[in-house]
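Anyone up for a design puzzle?
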């Protein structure tokens, strides 16, 4: 298919159009905050586009169909968890975070846990997001490698160039627009694929007659603990990642921030159900297929060539958009919390910020060159553990218990919990996931401090 002229034209045309749109957002000269927050003028749909542009990637589409091929409805946990996380963000966090007028999560946390914790929180959260960029570059490279039979080095290089082009466009302002367009194309792809798969399976009656109720129609088909773990990972991931909350910070007001998060909560989960249908159909029609190829194979074999070209471009942009959003989050955190003197009063503030952002992506690519054969999920687990251990409970205690003096506990948590996650990753401890280890230590520190004050 990679050699089919019509496929190539629609694939490349879609990519080119979206990159042009990414560069279409006008940013004020020399104003890096306008680049990172869009001047705090984002509407609800822009906030939605910025959140989903990063949150909805390969795991929501290709990964969901892959897991559905193996377990059925259990594959819905990723997008269902993402929707519930956005619901939590919209109901509980969007208003206080937007009211704070901050630019980064460590900046918000420092108001409650002290300035000395700010730089440490920034560095650990930056490291967590940076690791995830490496994982996304691997995912982008894998898509291109499979599609065009390229060596992984070449496909990863092309992916890195796409991420840089995407990131250095209009910043957060362009992220909202391109995120909405990307989601529109992803929805078209998944509605076409999922709807056709449902029809070919014979509708609901055909599904029931083809697959036993368990495990194929159970959310806990691969285990209760695994399902709860996936849900917890998504909740922690969303509220501990600068990129998603940066979309909230960019909203024009608190109501807009809340509506954007709630739109994301409503519109992400249906994508998972459509992916589940594709996975089930491919399990029925081609049970010998490699599970990771369920959605790509369905698109190539059953959708018209032109539609397949657009669909693959949308899937690639989904992964590129995730890496791009993470890079913008890393650069913003470094600019505001770690390197403010570089940008304060500089008449070259925006070029410096763009250079820093490009440097983040290129650094991830250099690290990738030494780990081309590594597993994407290994990077993802370490990234999630670092972000969750560093920011989750310090942020939640700051939002829900702002009047309680937990500065020392916050500082200790931010120092100790992510350090333990890194140690667990280095020594490859098999007993507990890095995320659980980091969260457990962080919560223990906060609870010990809170109850010792009562004693």
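Challenge accepted. My sequence:
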């Amino acid at each position: 298919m990679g050699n089919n002229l019509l496929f190539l034209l629609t694939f490349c045309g879609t990519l080119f159009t979206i990159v042009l749109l990414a560069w279409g957002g006008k940013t004020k000269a020399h104003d890096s905050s306008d680049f990172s927050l869009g001047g705090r003028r984002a509407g609800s749909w822009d906030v939605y586009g910025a959140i989903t542009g990063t949150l909805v990637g390969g795991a929501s589409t290709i990964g969901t169909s892959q897991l559905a091929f193996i377990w059925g409805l259990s594959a819905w946990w990723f997008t269902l968890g993402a929707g519930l996380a956005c619901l939590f963000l919209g109901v509980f966090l969007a208003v206080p975070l937007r009211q704070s007028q901050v630019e980064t999560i460590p900046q918000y946390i420092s108001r409650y846990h002290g300035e000395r914790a700010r730089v440490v929180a920034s560095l650990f959260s930056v490291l967590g997001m940076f690791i995830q960029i490496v994982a996304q570059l691997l995912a982008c490279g894998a898509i291109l490698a499979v599609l065009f039979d390229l060596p992984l080095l070449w496909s990863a290089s092309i992916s890195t160039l796409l991420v840089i082009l995407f990131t250095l466009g209009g910043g957060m302002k362009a992220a909202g627009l391109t995120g909405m367009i990307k989601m529109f194309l992803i929805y078209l792809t998944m509605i076409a694929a999922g709807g056709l798969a449902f029809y070919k399976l014979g509708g609901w009656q055909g599904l029931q007659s083809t697959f036993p109720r368990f495990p194929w129609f159970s959310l806990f088909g691969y285990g209760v603990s695994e399902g709860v773990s996936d849900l917890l990972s998504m909740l922690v991931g969303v509220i501990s990642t600068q990129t998603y909350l940066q979309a909230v910070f960019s909203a024009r007001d608190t109501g807009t921030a809340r509506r954007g998060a709630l739109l994301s909560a409503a519109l992400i989960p249906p994508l998972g159900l459509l992916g589940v249908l594709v996975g089930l159909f491919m399990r029925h029609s081609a049970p010998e297929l490699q599970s990771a190829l369920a959605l790509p194979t369905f698109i190539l074999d059953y959708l018209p060539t032109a539609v397949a070209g657009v669909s693959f471009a949308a899937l690639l942009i989904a992964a590129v958009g995730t890496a791009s959003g993470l890079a913008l989050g890393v650069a913003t955190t470094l600019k505001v919390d770690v390197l403010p003197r570089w940008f304060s009063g500089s008449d070259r503030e925006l070029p410096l910020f763009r250079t820093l952002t490009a440097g983040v992506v290129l650094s991830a690519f250099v690290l990738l060159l030494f780990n081309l054969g590594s597993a994407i999920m290994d990077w993802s687990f370490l990234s999630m553990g670092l972000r969750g251990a560093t920011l989750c409970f310090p942020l939640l205690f700051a939002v829900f218990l702002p009047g309680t003096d937990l500065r020392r506990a916050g500082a200790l948590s931010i120092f100790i919990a992510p350090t333990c996650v890194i140690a667990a990753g280095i020594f490859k401890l098999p007993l507990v996931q890095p995320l659980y280890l980091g969260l457990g230590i962080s919560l223990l520190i906060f609870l010990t401090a809170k109850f010792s004050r009562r004693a």
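A detail worth pointing out: The two ends are 69 Å apart (CA to CA).
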